[in-house]
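Continuing the batch. This is chain 6 of the set; chains 1 through 5 are on the previous pages. Same settings as before, nothing changed between runs. Recording input and output for traceability.
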Amino acid sequence: MPPLLELTQLGKSYATPDGHAVIVKDFNLRVPEGEFVCIIGHSGCGKSTVLSIVMGLNEATEGGVVLAGKEIIGPGLDRGVVFQSPALLPWLTARENVLLALEQVNGHSKRKEKIELADKYLALVGLQDVAGSYPDELSAGMRQRVGIARAFALEPKVLLLDEPFSLLDVVTRMELQDELMQLWERERKTVLMVTHDVDEAILLADRIVMMTNGPAASVGEILTIPFTRPRHRFDILADPEYGRVRNHLITFLEERANPRQISLLEKRKEEAQAQITADELFVIEKYTGFNRFRSRYRQRQPMAEPVEIGTQGGTSSCEATGVSRVSLR
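Output for chain 6:
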């Protein structure tokens, strides 16, 4: 069965006075139906740029995105979107904001049926008692719940979440993460989510896509999360695998997110190494005591490839695109 969502050789660049600024290049990802995928990476690496292209709000300069066999060329009702801020219309109640989405997909249904559907999705996020309230009468967490209910009410093929909990306090964020997990268990929607929070990604995702730093950011690794569903936060925290998974993600972000960048010191070493002749190297090694400068002028050996921990067998879409797929078991 082909994947529901396909991002192939995706690239985005902008024209500047100094030439083209390449933000994302050769981004490849396949998402099967019903999978929850999180994208993580440092600020400015292009995570939200990739997501905005999938939303249809931004146009790719290279490659493309295919959803359910059709290329994405603009916004559509087959994608439900939740942004950092809830983006509710302030003159409509919570119920009316959800009804606005239902009008787009169930325009021929009776109003009573649409109201029942709106109330159903508001109840799923715990807002059945405030359905008649306006956004300024709701807390930040409640407003974001309305945004989530509105996105699910569209019954989209894929749900796109752009750091939906990043502006909330820690307690509210944890509550909404738990509610999103429960809602996902009921609906089993395909989800592509951008987040900065490593722990949030581990809790929610089936796979985590780790992006390299820009410019020309791409997919560095794809990590399969070993925890079974349904998940419970404290069970995961108590699992010995949690530390291994978290350390793997942190190590990538700290040490392997810059594969193409060389420090100024490394450049100077390479330049010095290129200028040293064989005779000069002999003199340096012979007369500088214990050859303490040898490592500085010796040819650097190529680094070994990163070890894949528990890599699954068989050819996958990740292998086909040259991205390492890691599974921690």
